[in-house]
Amino acid sequence: MKGSPAQPLCGFSNAVVQILRLHGVEDYRAHDVLQDPDLRQGIKNYSNWPTIPQVYLNGEFVGGCDILLQMHQNGDLVEELKKLGIRSALLDAEKDQEKK
Ligand SMILES: N[C@@H](CCC(=O)N[C@@H](CS)C(=O)NCC(=O)O)C(=O)O
Ligand code: FES
After folding, report:
1. Ranges for the Glutaredoxin domain (predicted)?
2. pTM of the model
């Protein structure tokens, strides 16, 4: 990403942080490519993906901001987190809604 989860330095990186936060995912490793030109280029070569941010789940490249947003909207992100043993906080939020 660009910047840090606490202080994203680009709207695209910020969007990824916010989406993860919605699902209660705050504990992940983030690397600031603005601090490391080799990482900035190297990660693009590694994933064969031209832009930052890049999201990896269990070391597997998932996509950038657009793809994460799409996965958020179509429910895939909840499922992918489940595979990692992470229960999305959005499921509990939905339950709370039903009670009201
Ligand atoms: N559509 C992209 C948005 C990300 C994007 O366009 N990133 C640009 C601007 S931050 C980028 O990484 N450019 C190359 C670079 O800055 O090294 C996505 O889905 O992630
Ligand atoms: S830093 Fe300018 S669009 Fe990301």
Report:
1. 8-62
2. 0.95
The pair of three-digit structure tokens given for residue 59, joined into one six-digit string: 């070391």
Dump pLDDT digits (tens) for 20-73: 999 999 999 999 999 999 999 999 999 999 999 999 999 999 999 999 999 999
Neighbour-count burial for 55-69, b at 16+ CB within 10 Å, e otherwise: bebeeeebbbbebbb
Do 25 and 81 contact (CB within 8 A), yes or no? Answer: yes
| CA 74/CA 34 separation, integer angstroms | 31
Pocket-forming residues, ligand 1, beta carbon under 6 Å? 2, 10, 12, 40, 51-53, 64-66
Among all ligands shown, which has an atom nearest to the Cα of 15?
A: 1
